[in-house]
């Protein structure tokens, strides 16, 4: 008995044919097609997350007249932190917090054998100094421009805490190569911390992970430097940026202010 061959299901009208081009519209170039595809993807994500409102609130805001390059020091500090985080992740892929020689040998391996290892290590090493310099300049600009006054006192306090945490990041990261210079410099720094009133001895014991320097001291510094401090700094940077967007930025002290200047809304207008 011959097998019956069923006909193929009908295709929807216009399925095998592309959409007709509108008359008078030139053919799009590949870059234009890619740009439209990117816009479509962004629209698709925004329709499901509604992130565009928050992005517009954060980015598109009024700034006072007279704003100059001094106001970019905060952004430069944030990008320095991002650079430190990215290069630190790549270094952590090869670093071993082993006080019995593994830490020093891993750093030597990064600099001598890993592709672009010396470059990434140099970016991280000198980037820490750049970040410290930038955050000091940013704090100085905030102080001399009077940006710490009402209603921005909380943002100033967060900035001071970020300054302290940045110094702690530099201090804990200095020991990680675990050579003679970093070891004895850290010994001196921890002993100086131990001379502080009340909490000084407890702070030294916490940093040493015991009464004396040992193998666990390096692991303690690595955990603080790699996990604890970056998380706290990232959260405080988020709060700092939120307050900057909410309260606005102050006008330079030499800028002539309008009359009845007494609220942040008038300042941003």
UniProtKB/TrEMBL annotation:
<dbReference type="InterPro" id="IPR016174">
    <property type="entry name" value="Di-haem_cyt_TM"/>
</dbReference>
<dbReference type="GO" id="GO:0016491">
    <property type="term" value="F:oxidoreductase activity"/>
</dbReference>
<keyword id="KW-1133">Transmembrane helix</keyword>
<keyword id="KW-0812">Transmembrane</keyword>
<feature type="transmembrane region" description="Helical">
    <location>
        <begin position="156"/>
        <end position="176"/>
    </location>
</feature>
<dbReference type="GO" id="GO:0022904">
    <property type="term" value="P:respiratory electron transport chain"/>
</dbReference>
<dbReference type="InterPro" id="IPR005797">
    <property type="entry name" value="Cyt_b/b6_N"/>
</dbReference>
<feature type="domain" description="Cytochrome b/b6 N-terminal region profile">
    <location>
        <begin position="41"/>
        <end position="253"/>
    </location>
</feature>
<dbReference type="GO" id="GO:0008121">
    <property type="term" value="F:quinol-cytochrome-c reductase activity"/>
</dbReference>
<feature type="transmembrane region" description="Helical">
    <location>
        <begin position="69"/>
        <end position="95"/>
    </location>
</feature>
<feature type="transmembrane region" description="Helical">
    <location>
        <begin position="126"/>
        <end position="144"/>
    </location>
</feature>
<dbReference type="GO" id="GO:0016020">
    <property type="term" value="C:membrane"/>
</dbReference>
<dbReference type="InterPro" id="IPR027387">
    <property type="entry name" value="Cytb/b6-like_sf"/>
</dbReference>
<feature type="compositionally biased region" description="Pro residues">
    <location>
        <begin position="7"/>
        <end position="23"/>
    </location>
</feature>
<feature type="transmembrane region" description="Helical">
    <location>
        <begin position="221"/>
        <end position="245"/>
    </location>
</feature>
<dbReference type="Pfam" id="PF00033">
    <property type="entry name" value="Cytochrome_B"/>
</dbReference>
<protein>
    <recommendedName>
        <fullName>Cytochrome bc1 complex cytochrome b subunit</fullName>
        <ecNumber>7.1.1.8</ecNumber>
    </recommendedName>
</protein>
<feature type="region of interest" description="Disordered">
    <location>
        <begin position="1"/>
        <end position="26"/>
    </location>
</feature>
<keyword id="KW-0472">Membrane</keyword>
């Amino acid at each position: 008995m011959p097998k019956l061959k069923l006909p193929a299901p009908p295709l929807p009208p216009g399925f095998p044919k592309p959409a007709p081009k509108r008359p008078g519209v030139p053919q799009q170039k590949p870059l234009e097609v890619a740009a439209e595809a990117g816009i479509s993807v962004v629209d698709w994500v925004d329709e499901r997350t509604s992130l565009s409102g928050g992005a517009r609130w954060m980015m598109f805001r009024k700034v006072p007249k007279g704003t100059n390059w001094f106001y970019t020091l905060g952004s430069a500090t944030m990008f320095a932190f991002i650079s430190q985080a990215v290069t630190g992740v790549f270094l952590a892929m090869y670093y071993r917090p082993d006080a019995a020689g593994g830490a020093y040998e891993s750093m030597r391996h990064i600099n001598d054998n890993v592709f672009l290892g010396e470059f990434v290590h140099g970016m991280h090493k000198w980037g820490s100094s750049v970040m410290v310099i930038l955050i000091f300049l940013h704090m100085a600009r905030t102080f001399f421009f009077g940006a710490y006054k009402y209603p921005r006192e909380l943002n100033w306090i967060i900035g001071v805490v970020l300054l302290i945490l940045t110094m702690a990041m530099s201090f804990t990261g200095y020991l990680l190569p675990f050579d003679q210079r970093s070891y004895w410099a850290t010994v001196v720094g921890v002993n100086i911390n131990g001379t502080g009133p009340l909490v000084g001895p407890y702070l030294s014991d916490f940093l040493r992970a015991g009464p004396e320097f040992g193998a666990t001291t390096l692991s303690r510094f690595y955990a603080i430097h790699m996990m604890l401090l970056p998380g706290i700094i990232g959260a405080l940077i988020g709060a700092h940026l939120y307050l900057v967007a909410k309260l606005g930025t102050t006008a330079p002290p030499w800028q002539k202010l309008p009359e009845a200047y007494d609220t942040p809304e008038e300042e941003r207008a």
